[in-house]
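hiii so um. not sure if this is the right channel but i have a protein structure encoded as tokens and i wanna go backwards to a sequence. like what aa goes where. can anyone help
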């Protein structure tokens, strides 16, 4: 009997140890396989990264988890030791960590325990300036808080939160704040105000005068880059040329510019990730997948200040010269709250976007539901896009928008006169600078409380081509308007418009089939 009791106690101890052992990731290969195999195109297998059974606790490397002292050296030392040992898991226990940018390296899984909060300092001296791409254009930016270059088999998992301290970086428009919020921001952050826009300092304001494009300064004198450093806002997470990536369970928030920006990466999984930015955050995109292939984004939530789930591939000639499309992407079971668009293609799509499937998504209060955008000069082809099973509600602009006269402003911010000026410009000859959108299927979409249900506005020299709309039910203030479209199929599409016609087909629409 004694031996039996001893055995039971030992078994209980073993079971207790097993239940308390940390589970560093939960994404299963079988679940990812299910998502990729059901795609409407030949989707390659996307392998879930795995890691050796080695653990490196950042506290053992001297990390301060009280928020008093910088934890950068300790966390980076743990990452370096992990990759040098052949890989494993770097654990960030619960606590508050203040840090400078961190570089993730091959065969390292960064695991954040519950109640761990990692805040990136806004001290400019901690950020180096380096050659970078932003909004599809080569330029210079400050080092991204979470960065990796040509790394393989990397992951950020767990339950923690990464905060980019973006409120100290981003310009802020007075029109987007309540008076009390505006006064509080000025009092807490200092800075300088010009034309009802807050800037962190006069250097950030100065940089605007060097901007050829909206957010990319063109500076020939290298010494001036340091002067305008505060303007060179980094994206929160920037992985370039990496392979076999897993982001799981964690929260990424308050980014200085875009939140998540994988670029020229291969085999990326985002599973159960939360992405947050204030709704007023300038360039506060959720995830921008740029020139990547074999991507799965599943069970994620977005509440951001700009486009939420966005596909890109470079801008204008630099993007065409790079020539790397975004391809083979599955977006499944995601919810978007605020955002300029729920799911978005463009406007920087000069390298092309193809083989993308979006399904089982919910958009609540996004400025636009499904948003396709570009403009003359981009070039590139967006093709083989499949959207199946999207619900949307409280959309203040279009539920479905194709805008090939995109002018750089958010939906609803541009005047009719500004749009008309671009549309009335003389159409150029078709060339490598002409963007094309074709072979797109959108089906099983429901929407309620939408301003305008559908708007297609293609280029006269390159119409929107071969779009099928099937099983769509929308209630909206205004109906559907189609311009500059060729090869449109409308199958069981019901628009309940409060005013005007449910469907308007401009004379520039050709080859329409309505069932």
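sure thing!! here u go:
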């Amino acid at each position: 009997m004694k031996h039996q009791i001893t055995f039971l106690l030992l078994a209980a101890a073993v079971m207790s140890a097993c239940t308390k052992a940390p589970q560093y990731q939960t994404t299963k290969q079988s679940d990812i396989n299910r998502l990729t195999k059901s795609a409407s195109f030949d989707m390659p297998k996307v392998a879930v990264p795995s890691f050796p059974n080695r653990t490196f606790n950042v506290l053992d490397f001297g990390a301060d988890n009280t928020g008093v002292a910088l934890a950068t050296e300790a966390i980076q030392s743990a990452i370096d030791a992990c990759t040098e040992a052949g890989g494993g898991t770097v654990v960030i226990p619960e606590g508050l960590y203040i840090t400078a940018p961190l570089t993730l390296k091959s065969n390292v899984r960064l695991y954040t325990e519950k109640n761990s909060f990692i805040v990136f300092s806004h001290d400019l001296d901690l950020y180096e300036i380096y050659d970078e791409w932003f909004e599809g254009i080569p330029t210079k930016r400050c080092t991204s808080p979470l960065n990796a270059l040509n790394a393989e088999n990397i992951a950020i998992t767990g339950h923690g939160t990464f905060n980019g301290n973006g409120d100290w970086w981003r310009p802020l428009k007075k029109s987007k704040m309540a008076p009390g919020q505006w006064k509080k921001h000025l009092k807490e952050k200092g800075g300088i105000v010009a034309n009802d826009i807050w800037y962190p300092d006069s250097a950030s304001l100065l940089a605007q005068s060097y901007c050829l494009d909206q957010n990319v300064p063109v500076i020939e004198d290298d010494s001036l880059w340091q002067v305008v450093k505060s303007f060179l806002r980094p994206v929160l997470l920037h992985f370039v040329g990496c392979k076999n990536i897993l982001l799981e369970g964690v929260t990424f928030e308050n980014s200085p510019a875009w939140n998540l920006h994988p670029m020229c990466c291969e085999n990326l999984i985002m599973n159960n990730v939360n992405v947050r930015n204030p709704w007023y955050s300038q360039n506060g995109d959720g995830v921008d997948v740029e020139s990547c292939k074999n991507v799965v984004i599943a069970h994620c939530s977005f509440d951001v200040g700009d486009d939420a789930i966005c596909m890109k591939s470079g801008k204008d000639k630099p993007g065409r010269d790079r020539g790397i499309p975004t391809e083979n992407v599955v977006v499944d079971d995601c919810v978007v709250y605020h955002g300029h668009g729920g799911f978005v293609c463009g406007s920087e799509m000069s390298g092309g976007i193809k083989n993308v499937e979006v399904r089982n998504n919910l958009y609540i209060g996004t400025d636009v539901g499904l948003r396709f955008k570009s403009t003359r000069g981009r070039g590139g082809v967006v093709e083989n896009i499949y959207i199946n099973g999207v619900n949307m509600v409280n959309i203040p602009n279009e539920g479905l928008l194709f805008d090939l006269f995109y002018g750089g402003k958010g939906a609803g911010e541009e005047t009719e006169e500004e749009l008309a000026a671009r549309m009335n410009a003389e159409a150029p000859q078709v060339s490598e600078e002409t963007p094309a959108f074709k072979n797109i299927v959108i089906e099983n979409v429901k929407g309620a409380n939408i301003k305008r249900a559908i708007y297609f506005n293609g280029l006269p020299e390159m119409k929107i081509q071969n779009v099928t709309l099937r099983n769509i039910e929308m209630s909206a203030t205004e109906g559907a308007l189609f311009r500059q479209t060729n090869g449109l199929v409308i199958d069981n599409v019901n628009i309940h418009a409060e005013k005007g016609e449910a469907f308007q087909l401009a004379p520039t629409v050709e080859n329409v089939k309505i069932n």
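oh and The first strand starts at residue 55 and ends at 57.
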